[in-house]
Amino acid sequence: MSFLKSFLVLLCLAVLSIGSVSAQDSSEALRPLVNELAKGKFDETQRQVEALKATGDPTVAPALEALSAGDLYFRKSDGMVFIAQREGKSYNLTDPLTGEAAGTAGRRDVKKIKVNNRLRRVIRAALGSLTLQAPDPAVRMTAAEAIFKAQDPEKIEALDEALAAETDDNVRTVMEQARAAAVLNSDLDETEKLEAVQTLSDMGNRDALSLLIAAQSASAGAVQEAAANAVAKIEKSIATWDAAQNIWYGLSLGSVLLLAAIGLAITFGVMGVINMAHGEMVMIGAYVTFVVQELIRTSAPGLFDYSLFIALPLAFATSGLIGIGIERGVIRWLYGRPLETLLATWGISLILQQAVRSIFGPTNREVGNPDWMSGAFEIGQMTVTYNRMWIILFALLVFAGLILVLKKTPFGLYTRAVTQNRRMGASMGIRTPWIDALTFGLGSGIAGIAGVALSQIDNVSPNLGQGYIIDSFMVVVFGGVGNLWGTLVGAMTLGVVNKFLEPYAGAVLAKILVLVFIILFIQKRPRGLFALKGRAVEA
């Protein structure tokens, strides 16, 4: 067994030494070509740049970049070429092929290799060719994207060479698009430009649209007509994707409104209480998330990705207990007096806001996104962020869980009974005061977990809840007081309508228009989209 281990160690060392010798041999083979840059005038230097380009080895790229920047020097004593950076009265030398430090040299010991603008253009072309044919597909992709943005006609020849050797389909597609962009900015014939227009038309995004609009205004004849047709096609496609993006943003906003309003729908439906402190329950949930993340950052950084899972039950319990305390301490004495209830809960909201300001300060607090909620991906021309996607799924899970609680548990049965006919429920032995307290706690707890979700997309501050309380009431009234399905439909509908109105009316006017719509709708259907049924409700 020990013999086998020794053999494997020797084999690994042999492989590493072979790789090292191979890399060293490659550098030594290129070194004479790099040293030739120090000899002759501009024409000879240009020919040597072409010779380095012909090797197709990206190892020579740092030497060419340094030459273009004026940082390439040769040592007078032996003609060796180095990248030199001046420091005081001497130069720090770097090997242009290996990147290793090569000591220092005095100002009189080295001489700069001169370069002019014509030579810089040749160097740029050579660098483009080298990066377009680099072994790493990511480097080739980046080089092609840079050419697409620059629309440099001088890169067409390098792109043709790279396309002839390209084996990666994704990189080939980007190279073809880069070539099309460069062709439209060149003096090539009409046939080439028509093919370029078709390539960009198939690309079909905003980058292609801007290039085609420029080509349409700068061209004539068949090219102009083809560009105009391509522009119309892409604009139609983009309009469709914009509508899809607005629907996604609307569903995203709707999920936020659903989380903020679903707890309010329960308390408002069961007790008829206008709870102006509901937004502060959302705020408390967000601050619980902040506290959890701060404790994790200082005590167990490795658990940060699980911080939201830890914060969810804590936020639910904290907000729920505060909600039960508010109901038992204040609201139960004010049933049947809606104006006094509204004023009392508004006062409670001010007290909670000031308490949070005193504890955490008035400024925004940072709540981080776990890795699994960061980033985005694209579907066609539509961008989908992971945090919004997870919040939509989370809102639907909360909704489904609440439906199960209300439909499949004794507590849910008692709650529905009290909602439909409080007196009959009490006469059947249901302890309606405790149902009120637990329902208020449940609604407040759901608001707390809404705060956990909102902390991922909004600023955590004492005013967090105030931004959602009015919208939450609009959702509840529009969907039907106390009806969870109405709350779901109302939240998603108002979210989508808001996002379609904002581009034309602005965010503030869009909200005003939505409010006017709800007022008119309530005039026609006073109980909302889905009115609760029951003798007490209908009485």
Short synopsis of the structure:
With 539 residues, the protein is α+β, with helices and mostly antiparallel strands. The protein contains 21 helices and 7 strands. The protein has a 5-stranded antiparallel beta sheet with strand order 4-3-2-1-5. Strands 6-7 form a two-stranded antiparallel ribbon.
Protein described:
With 539 residues, the protein is α+β, with helices and mostly antiparallel strands. Helix content is 71%, strand content 6%. Strand 6 and strand 7 form a beta hairpin.
Features:
single chain, 539 residues, alpha+beta, five-stranded antiparallel sheet, two-stranded antiparallel sheet, 6% strand, elongated, disordered C terminus
Strand content: 5-15%
What's the number of helices?
21
* Main beta sheet strand tally, sense and closure: 5 strands, antiparallel
Strand order of the largest sheet: 4-3-2-1-5
What string, H for helix and E for strand, traces the elements in order?
Answer: HHHEEEEEHHHHHHHHHHEEHHHHHHHH
Spatial separation of the terminal alpha carbons: 89 Å
Radius of gyration: 34 Å
Oligomer: single chain
Q: Report the structural category.
A: alpha+beta
Q: Assign an overall shape.
A: elongated
| Residue share in helix | over 70%
Mean pLDDT: 81
Low-confidence parts: 1-24, 534-539
Instruction: Please give the number of β-strands.
Output: 7
